[in-house]
Design a protein that fits this description.
mainly alpha; 1 helix; membrane; transmembrane helix; transmembrane
Length: 55
């Protein structure tokens, strides 16, 4: 009983650690891409505002 409980605890910990690493693997590339694209988006918006005819 005690051994089984301890095994389950370790198993849960491993699962949560794996889940965390997977989440980091998924989130990190997206945040990096977003960080790289921000200047491009800002430039695009500024260009659009500049070229928009003032009515």
């Amino acid at each position: 009983m005690h051994l089984k409980h301890r095994y389950r605890l370790v198993n849960d910990l491993n699962c949560s650690l794996w889940d965390m690493s997977v989440r980091i693997d998924i989130i990190l590339p997206f945040s990096l891409v977003n960080a790289l694209q921000w200047p491009y988006f800002i430039k695009l918006i500024l260009n659009f505002m500049r070229t928009k005819p003032a009515s």
